[in-house]
Amino acid sequence: MQKLKGKNRIRELRQIAETLASKVATHRGVTGIVFIGGLTRDFADRHSDIDIITLLAEKDDTLSKKLKKAGSSEQERSGIDIDLEVHSLDDFRKRKWDETFKWDMSHAKTVYDPKGDIQRLLSKKLDISKVFWLKRITICGEYLKWYCCPPKDDAGTMVEAWVERGDMVSAHYCLSYALDLLVRIIFALNKEFLPAPKWRIFYSYNLKWLPTDYKRLLKEIITIRSLSEHDLNRRMKALRQIWQETLPKIKDETGLTPALISKYYVEKVLHQTSAS
Asked: What is the DSSP string of 82-151?
């Protein structure tokens, strides 16, 4: 993991969290405790808080209030923001997990799981089919072609359309959107859920597979020196270079070429089939 600057308070926060978790685990009815967020990283600073999920074997409002009160008391004592969630195992199992939460849970640290309830729950909720990743690559790949990376040099894109319309702000914005699509594809190729936007670029640095020279090219794309067409072309060149590095990986992982991405998008995503 890339090293972050600033005073690292992770030991302090983990000590507070572990002490609180030890107290929570003594209560009858608690079947699991999980750390998420900053506690799962090797770094925490003054912007970090403590996120703990506690699961109960059965719904118990009295116990839930007692545990939350313990969290509030520890927050007052330590001066650190503590978000102690309490759920019944059944409610947590039925809850719809959005992708950011799935990312959190895929990186969660289980600190109490005497019956294996947490392990079984995570195995089920985080079991994602290959079709999920394939559709993400297809949808983002098709949009990326429309916005910035056409399969043919003479094909127009949304970025170039805004240049012709005379709105360079929209042109640069469309290119930035294309970057987001590309980052989504790279996460999907690694079969990784998308973290929250505030962490997305940072966590992309350490994915198992990355295009050659990814960090340098990413910096080139992110940097906007002026809202000129010249600067737009510089950014676009770097983005297209990452895309060209990514296409062979897409073919290796999915068998899809740019033409087959479009075919899959029409037939499987739009639920259309060709006349033939």
From this structure: EEEEEEEHHHHHHSPPPHHHHHHHHT-EEEE-TTSHHHHHHHHHT---HHHHHHHHHHHHHHHHHHT--S
Q: What are the residue boundaries of the structural domains of the chain, listed by start?
A: 10-125, 130-269
What are the backbone angles phi and psi of residue 222, rounded to the nearest 5°? -65, -35
80 CB-side CA count, 13 A = 26
Half-sphere exposure at residue 5, Cβ-oriented, CA atoms within 13 angstroms: 0
Closest CA to 66 of 50, 54, 77: 54
Q: Distance of CA 71 to CAs 53, 58, 76, 83, 257, Å?
A: 11, 20, 9, 7, 52
Q: What is the pLDDT of residues 164-178, one digit of tens each?
A: 999 999 999 999 999
The per-residue pLDDT for range 38-74, each reduced to its tens digit, is 899 888 888 899 999 999 999 999 999 999 999 999 9
Q: Are strands 50-56 and 30-36 parallel, antiparallel or unpaired?
A: antiparallel
The CATH number given to 10-125 is 3.30.460.10
- Position 155 scores a pLDDT of 72
What are the two backbone dihedrals, phi and then psi, of residue 223, each rounded to the nearest 5 degrees? -70, 125
